[in-house]
Each structure stands twice: as structure tokens, then as C-alpha cells.
Amino acid sequence: MNFVPFHKYGTPKYFYSWSLALRPWLGGACVLLFIAGLIGGLFLAPTDYQQGESFRIIYVHVPAAWMSLFIYIVMASAGACGLIWHVKLADIVARACAPLGAWFTFLALFTGSLWGKPMWGTYWVWDARLTSELILLFLYLGYIALQGAIDDRRTAARAGAILAIVGTVNIPIVHYSVEWWNTLHQGPTVSKLDAPSMDTSMLIPLLIMALAYNLYFVAVLFERVRCEILEFERNTNWVKELTRDKGVV
Amino acid sequence: MASEVSFFSMGGYAYFVWFSYGISAIVLLANALLPARKEKKLLAEIAVRERGKSENL
User: A60 to chain B: which residues are within 8 Å by CB?
Assistant: First the structure.
């Protein structure tokens, strides 16, 4: 193996090769965690004394909601890196985050409303948590629309980064909404680290699912970034050599 | 779970629980498979184009 200076790992070419080498490991770990989390959540976790079996929606709802916030922070940070230091890979990462973040936000809203119907008696209510999460979805969609509207990649990346950074103000609002306002949505259950108000047998599957969602995000993000790299480095020698070596038909 | 029947009926919440899990599974699978397919396609396209060029030389 050749010695590669550290900063080179961030160039598209090296990112492509190391992320490809990582792919089977990420994918494998992700599948195993999903299996473990689903077994834990659907079979091992006991029935909730108040909500009955409907509480099991938590294992797909909460990880999706956490990811919707986390991905936004990744997107805004990557956008800022691209804006300040002109890191090409950072722009690509920011752009690749948006659709994933939008899908996780959609899942959080959708599964949340499916949980709200039996528990609250309504699919939707304009309370602070639900409304701020919906605004998050619009921020993602706005970012995606902006990327589509601007032809020049550099300009699109800059405009997107500014939108993402400004939109960050919504993230603490989503997170603290249940404490700042009276919401139908329940308060934090897990993040009270001193005493999570959840039994360990219910909490562990949730944490496993959250980890599975995280790895899933990283794996799919890398896949999307590799696609973008191929698209825009298609005329470089290393991409041509890549397809020659592989003998891809 | 006492029996398979009660597992699938989810204590009367089957519709809400399975719909949540189902939509999550569909969205996650689609989001994983589409970029993977796209990458394969892109590599194939580039390979074909390169082969075309070398034959024309």
C-alpha cells in the first residue's frame, strides 16, 4: 500500500476508493443491527402498560426523527466547510445529504401521525413539535429545489450552504419545542440521561435501531457521494482506469 | 407474544404498527437500492464510452 498524506483522503479520488472498501463492512454491520433492533423491538421488548403494542412504533419513529435533525446538522456543516474552505468534497456531501434528510423527516412525520391517531385521537395537530418538524421538511425541499434551479454547481453549492446555515435556527426549535411550549407531543424520554423514563428492555432496542439508522445514513450517503464523484470526474484518468480495471460492461 | 395471531394483530393496533414499519422499510430500501444501481450504471456508461473511443483510434 502506498503512503498517502492525510489530507488526500478528502479528495474525490481517494474518498472513492476508501469508501468503496468500507462498503461491505458498513452494509453488513447495518443489516445485523437492523435485525437485532427489530427482534428486540418487536419480540423482546415488553408491552407498554399505557399504550399497549402501539408503542412499538417508537422503534421506527424516534430513530427517523433523530436522523432528520442529525442529517440537517451534517448538511449545514458540510455546506459551511465548502463555503469557507472551498472543499469540493464538502459541497458534494452537503448536496447528497438533502434527499436523505428529507426522507427521514417524511418518515418521522408519517410514522408519528400513525402513532398519533390511536394515542391522541388525531393524525395531525398544529403543535410546536409537529409544526417545526414540518418546517424542517420544507427546508430540505427548499434546499433540493434550489440545487435544481441553479445550473452552475459552485453557485448552487454556495446558495444551498447559506440556506442550510440559516435554516439551522430551526434545529433547536424542533428539539426544545416540547419543553418550551405545551405540546400534545410528549416530552423527552431518552435524552434525560440521568434517568431515562424508559425501561432498559425497551430502551436497548431503541438505541440499536438508532445506531442502525445512523450506519444506514453513512452507507447511503457514501453511495450518493460516489455517484456524484463519478458524474463529475468522468473525464479524469482515474475514473477511466477504474472502469478499465473493473471490466464493467 | 403468546401466539402468532396476537403478534400480527399487535393488540388491535396492527394497522398503525405495520403501516409504520412497512413505509419505513419501503423508503429505506428504495433509498439504498437506487443510488447503488445508479453507481453501477454510471460505471458501465463510462466503460462503454471508453471502449468506443479506443476502438475508433
Answer: 20-21, 24
